[in-house]
Amino acid sequence: QVLPVESGGGLVQAGGSLVLSCLGSGRIFSGYAMGWFRQAPGKAREWVAGISRSGASTYYADSVKGRFTISRDHTKDTVNLHINSLKPEDTGVYYCNKDPPPVNGPWGQGTQVTVSS
Fold first, then answer.
1. pLDDT tens column, 80-99
2. In 3D, which of 37, 8, 9 has the Cα closest to residue 112?
């Protein structure tokens, strides 16, 4: 089963920026709205941003609005998440998936984002 591959995470100071990338293969993202999700330690996975199938519409959780920007490139089958003004509460493992995601997965490995205060 083909899974998305997330990358770009790291350890950054509060106020810093990151660009997360999600790479599909075999055009697994084509035809679907896509989203970024995150799971903080000890918490359930939550949706943070979504983008329509065409890329024309984007949506954000209130907690990230104005700081996160989601985009997609159909030619490369990628979905990116630009993160600015990082806060310690943004710490977690970030995943991409169809939006809404399949009830029983699958999910990729995710990419760890750690924000130090």
1. 999 999 999 999 999 999 99
2. 9
DSSP, residue by residue, 35-76? EEEEE-TTS--EEEEEE-SSSS-EEE-TTTTTTEEEEEETTT
CA torsion, points 43, 93, 27, 49, in degrees to nearest 10? 60
Q: Read off the amino acid at residue 96.
A: C
- Contact, 14 vs 88, CB < 8 A? yes
Token couple for 2: 């083909």
- Read off the pLDDT of residues 36-55 as tens digits, 9 standing for 90 and up: 999 999 999 999 999 999 99
Q: Is residue 59 within 8 Å of residue 9, measured between CB atoms?
A: no
Place of tokens 């996975």: 45
d(CA 77, CA 55): 12
If one counts every other C-beta atom within 10 angstroms of the C-beta of residue 58, the result is: 14
